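Methods, example record. To illustrate the input and output format used throughout this study, we show the complete record for 16S rRNA (Cytosine967-C5)-methyltransferase. The sequence lines were provided to the predictor; the line carrying structure tokens was produced by it.
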Amino acid sequence: MTSERSGSSSRPAQGARRPGGQQARPGARRPAPAGANPVAQRIEQVRSALGEILQWSGPADQVLSRWFRDHPKLGGRDRGTVAEAVYDVLRHLRRYRHVAEGGRGAATRRLAILGLASTLGREGILPVLDADEADWLRRVSAIDQAALPREIRLSIPDWLSEALAIEPDSDSLLAALNRAAPLDIRVNPMKADRETILAELRAGVASEMAEPTPYSPFGIRLQGRPALTRWGRFEDGSIEVQDEGSQLLALLVAPRRGEMVIDFCAGAGGKTLLLGALMRSTGRLYALDVSHTRLARFKPRLARSGLSNVVPVVIANENDARVKRLARKAHRVLVDAPCSGTGTLRRNPDLKWRQNPESVSDLCALQRSILASAARCVAPGGRLVYATCSILRVENEGQVEAFLAAHPEFELLPAPELLADRAGALSLPGPYLKLRPDVHGTDGFFAAVFQRRHGPAVAQVAAAEAELPEPDAQAAGLDDEVEAPDEEPARDEAAGSAGNLGEGDR
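The corresponding predicted structure is encoded as:
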């Protein structure tokens, strides 16, 4: 981006009046007209996009996608610049608002200036600012951030700061969540191997940016944003975008050939595809979700994957008659539950501003209901994996403790031992899979593994489940397929929105 400004409009005559009647100081600079300088245009574009996003009418990525559709003349590089600045503002919103209080003019313009100063560099935008804005930017850039209160310095709401204060090195965790995430992809083991894909990436699409993920044997980590969606390997289903932490969930489920497996909150099917590949496309894999749109979005991915053992099924809720038909039949059940999404703040920073203690409490109630319903589907000796992309203990350890207290027919299995020969050098201190961006380089993930016991407790539960009402005879069969849309919808990257029985593309 050029940082040159228009000489014809940068310096008004002495004594000239500014809009609003204020007299400009001698030598003061007016901002370059929006059409005269690309950087000046970017400020106005970021300001406009933020004006819509900060109304919190929906996930930031969806609102920004609509904004881009409304501004079709923006090129790909310009869209990238706007998006990067917008997400920088969302990550640091509380701190930026705090320092912006000392400026003049529209608050969203000051936020846009701070976002672009962070992403383009301060010297890249100073030439297009007026004297007051330039002085303000220099002043706030010199603030000692270490002297700011924790909540402002790390830009988090008070409730989240309090909830995470019990976590070890919580400042390090929150600082990592305020940094942009790399791009993780997963190789489809049905179609390719990681070394081949790595070599092809390094030879062309991603150059030096591609490295194998340290824990998942299927993952590749990319720095930057290479154009993968038009690459032949993406189009033929050899790779999928999936965070390494999400890949490890499938390894915890550890499905075997010929088994019946349920992905209870399948979303757009990222984990389903890896589960199906680990099953070598044998057995039966049900992908359940309450959203027809998400499962329809999954259909093109499923077609590319080459799998033939996956059955997408739309359910009304966790107690749908179709779920009851699966009682005690599944060898493996994965519940990647709807959650606050606080582990994905690197990718979805708006979630910390859209969630609150009340919404988290509602999600916890839904998680308990989903987990109890999914547990009924597990056969004796079968495995149940409960997972979230949350870093909040109330959604994680708290749910595990409540579930075990209410379901003595299940026992907790040690996740680190289950992954010992599958996940490289991954070291975990406790019985759970707990991943952090500052420690493991992944999104924040949690998972617990349960196994249904054999014994008297099982018999008691079986008798109770036998009393469940029979499914409605008119309910459609489990093998009903989901129709794909005429066009694949734009990708929804906002995970963990309240009320969803799925987590985006994870």
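Annotations derived from this record:
The first strand starts at residue 183 and ends at 187.
The longest helix spans residues 357-376.
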